[in-house]
């Protein structure tokens, strides 16, 4: 789940390990693309890592050219274009991952969902429909607690 507030963005995710044999520190569900943009995924981890590398490279190229951080909207547009290209190219399969991209730039907090097809849209509150039972129960019961915790986090940073 990702929530955009007036002065920041909060990303929350549940890390489900496929097996007890998997090292918990080796699974990263949230990655930083730039100092002001983060991303969380649902789907195939290896596809996510490929998209993170491509997005970080795009952000670095933008920074080298303009000497400023890439706007969130532009990075999302370029990442979605890569994903869309893979849906139409011969010999490659589409990316099996959905992304939630959150960031803060000159336009304020930005929040986007990018689908495997390469389509993307913006919103103030996004969550995937297939939440675990525990997550949906926690959100229903603990809405006030979540908002107070988020406000504390925002105030500290």
TrEMBL record:
Annotated Pfam families: Proteasome
InterPro entries in alphabetical order: Ntn_hydrolases_N, Proteasome_alpha, Proteasome_alpha-type, Proteasome_sua/b
Keyword Nucleotidyltransferase belongs to the record: no
GO biological process terms, semicolon-separated: proteolysis involved in protein catabolic process
Keywords, alphabetical: Proteasome
PROSITE patterns: PROTEASOME_ALPHA_2 (PS51475)
Record carries keyword Transmembrane helix: no
GO cellular component terms given for this protein: proteasome core complex, alpha-subunit complex
SUPFAM superfamilies per the UniProt record, alphabetical: N-terminal nucleophile aminohydrolases (Ntn hydrolases)
Family statement drawn from the similarity comment of this UniProt entry: Belongs to the peptidase T1A family.
Protein name: Uncharacterized protein
Organism: Protea cynaroides
UniProt lineage: Eukaryota, Viridiplantae, Streptophyta, Embryophyta, Tracheophyta
């Amino acid at each position: 789940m990702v929530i955009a507030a007036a002065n920041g963005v909060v990303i929350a995710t549940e890390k489900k390990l496929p097996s007890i044999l998997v090292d918990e520190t080796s699974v990263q569900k949230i990655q930083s693309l730039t100092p002001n943009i983060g991303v969380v995924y649902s789907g195939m981890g290896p596809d996510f890592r490929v998209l993170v590398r491509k997005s970080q490279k795009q952000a670095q190229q933008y920074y080298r050219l303009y000497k400023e951080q890439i706007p969130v909207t532009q990075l999302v547009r370029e990442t979605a274009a890569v994903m869309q290209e893979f849906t139409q190219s011969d010999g490659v399969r589409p990316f099996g991952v959905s992304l939630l991209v959150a960031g803060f730039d000159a336009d304020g907090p930005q929040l986007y969902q990018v689908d495997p097809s390469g389509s993307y849209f913006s919103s103030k509150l996004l969550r995937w429909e297939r939440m675990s039972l525990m997550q949906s129960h926690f959100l229903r019961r603990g809405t006030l607690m979540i908002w107070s915790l988020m406000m504390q986090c925002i105030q500290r940073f």
